[in-house]
């Protein structure tokens, strides 16, 4: 299991549901021949497309040993089954309005990509009455059996499977915000889309977090393009 260095911390307290969001943000990832915008040059971090890496299903972002001797891992997971009821409990924790479960299930089922943040607890199975699997042979590391896994973050995309994708429903459990997990979640999802040669990536953001997304290479209203709502 590949374990990357820690991500830069950021404030995740401003993740908002897409139906409250007002400003469309478009990530510019176009051929180099596109005419540059007349603006003062600003130094920035290397673009995500310059560091795509390999596609992964599970990626350990944070690992720690708890007081009871068990191992806690926060993992980025690309794909897998998401329980709609568990997702709605997480949405409730961040203050989102309740949604009908059958609609949440349909949204997940019809998404092009669903990525999640999972808290995995591993240790001696004798310390718990149940386990959900073993951490050996590709189970993601840790010590002993996997005692529990819980959803602490999610993002999903819709796409035409060729050119365009839009990121929706980005959220992180308030108990785990402030560790850069939201940034890691969005960046890993963008990398996965770029590996599939989907380069026109959009999302919606409240005005308070526009600069946060700019730091990851997104651009508000590029070349005068505006989001239209009906």
What is the topological layout?
Layout: E1 23-27, E2 58-65, E3 71-78, H1 84-93, H2 101-109, E4 113-123, E5 133-134, E6 145-159, E7 164-172, H3 181-195, E8 200-205, H4 210-214, E9 218-220
Parallel strand pairs: 7-8
Antiparallel strand pairs: 1-8, 1-9, 2-3, 3-4, 4-6, 5-6, 6-7
Helix pairs in contact: 1-2
Walk me through the structure.
This protein is of the alpha+beta class and 230 residues long. It is built from four helices and nine strands, in the order βββααββββαβαβ. It has helices spanning 84-93, 101-109, 181-195, 210-214; strands spanning 23-27, 58-65, 71-78, 113-123, 133-134, 145-159, 164-172, 200-205, 218-220. Strands 1, 2, 3, 4, 5, 6, 7, 8 and 9 form a nine-stranded mixed β-sheet that branches. Helix 1 (84-93) packs across helix 2. Mean pLDDT is 78; it is low at 1-46 and 134-140.
Q: Would you summarize the structure shown here?
A:
The protein has 230 residues and is of the alpha+beta class. It is built from 4 helices and 9 strands, in the order E-E-E-H-H-E-E-E-E-H-E-H-E.
